[in-house]
Amino acid sequence: MSNVNCSSVMNDYSIEPVVDSELYEVEEIRHLYDLFDVISVHKIQNPLLWGLYTLRKNEMEINNRNIIVNEWLLYHVTATKNVQSIAENNLDWRFTSRCRYGKGVCFSYCPLYANKYASCAQGSSSAVDYDENIMDILINMGFPREAVKRALFYTYNQGLECAIKWLMDHITDNNFAEPFVPSRHNFNSVMIEISIERAFIICRVLVQSIKDVSVNYHLNVIPNIFDTAKSTNGMVYVKFNDYEFYPQYIVYYREHNLSQYSDPYSYNFNYNYCVDQ
Known about the structure:
GO terms for molecular function: NAD+ poly-ADP-ribosyltransferase activity; NAD+-protein mono-ADP-ribosyltransferase activity. Residues 129-170 form the UBA domain. This is UBA domain-containing protein. Pfam families: PARP, UBA_7. There is one protein chain. The chain is an alpha+beta fold. It has helices at 20-25, 27-35, 47-63, 83-89, 111-122, 132-140, 145-154, 160-169, 184-190, 257-261, and strands spanning 14-17, 37-45, 70-79, 105-107, 198-207, 210-213, 228-231, 237-239, 245-254. A hairpin with a 5-residue loop joins strand 7 (228-231) and strand 8 (237-239). Helix 6 (132-140) crosses helix 7 (145-154) and helix 7 (145-154) crosses helix 8. The protein starts with 13 loop residues before the first strand and ends in a 16-residue tail after the last helix.
């Protein structure tokens, strides 16, 4: 990880609308028009971040000449309030929460999966993604499975302590152990100040050495002989080092019925990302 201190460096950047020709030329942008209600598309021009990214790419090539440094365009979904900070300072692994594959910045080649992952973290109306590790612990403690599902849903999978507190607070509820299938009303009730609009950040990502990683909420980083973690389902790539990714495009969008309920695994976007490195 580079030790360059950028706090004293003037960082002039701009966010410009993408011209029509580029909208058609970039496949990763075209996918989003097919799957979501795209509001607008912009391109980030940040010479400082681009220079640091280029420098890091050169370092990776020099440090290990035997392995090619791949450069991929991958998706990251965020709230619109984060866009300006990302354009100026890049994505920051230090703000990562709900770390399933290590404390890093998560990307995906599949926009549906990137949207679903962000939706679960924010409590939207996409499919519920229960934390299986915490679920097993709570069931072994004697709590009914359906009650555990309720607890994880209403605490946004934020951890064991939060779930236990919810269970103890609601243990006398009449429906405590009844089957739990979240309705649209349930989803709406947990959405607190979440804008309908969100943004895809399409990033250039440097990938050289990959380690396959299973879900592990206690994992911080991977061995330093690897630069990228990949989920065992092949959908998520996690970067742990600064400047190994550059935010290139911002795509503001809304979900529609297709994107809310589509199965990410049913779409063939680009299998180049699944090739063993």
